[in-house]
Amino acid sequence: MRYDLTLADWAQQRGDSQTAIADYQRVLRQEADNGDARLGLAEVYLAEGDKPSARAQVMQLKGAETESMNMQRAGGAGASWPWRYR
After folding, report:
1. Exposure pattern of 1-37 as b/e (b: 16+ CB <10 Å)?
2. Within a domain: 54
3. Number of folded domains in the chain?
4. What's the CATH number where 43 sits?
5. Do the domain assignments include residue 40?
6. Is residue 7 situated within a structural domain?
7. Contact 41, 24 (CB under 8 A)
8. Rounded alpha-carbon distances, angstroms, from residue 58 to 14, 54, 74
9. pTM score, two decimals?
């Protein structure tokens, strides 16, 4: 699973949104509470301009595990994400 998450992160970094979405979704099928995958998916959706889908992923983060470094990063950045300011 860590391997799939890394592949998704790399796809996101190189701007390959479709591959990143597919890879993050594969991780979430295996582990629905994976906060790193949810955050990554939200970031991809936001970069694509799909605010409703990004918001849906963030709303699911509230129940997910928050111990990872990415989740800690999201906690500080979440208040400044664009959908917070309609």
Report:
1. eeebbebbbebbeeeeeebbbebbeebbeeeeebbbb
2. yes
3. 1
4. 1.25.40.10
5. yes
6. yes
7. yes
8. 22, 6, 9
9. 0.72
Contact partners, residue 61, CB within 8 Å, separation at least 6: 35, 38, 39, 42, 71, 74
Structure tokens given for 49: 């301009």
Q: Residue 57 belongs to what H/E stretch?
A: helix 51-61
State how far the alpha carbon of 2 is from the alpha carbons of 27, 35, 43, 84, in Å.
8, 12, 18, 30
On whether residue 83 sits in a domain, the answer given is no
pLDDT for 61: 87
Backbone dihedral angles phi then psi of residue 83, each to the nearest 5 degrees: -70, -10
Convert 22-50 into a string of H (helix), E (strand) and C (coil): HHHHHHHHHCCCCHHHHHHHHHHHHHCCC
- Which stretch of DSSP H or E encloses residue 11? helix 2-13
Q: With a cut of 50, list the residues of the chain below it in pLDDT.
A: 69, 78-80, 83-86
What is the extent of the structural domain holding 26?
2-67
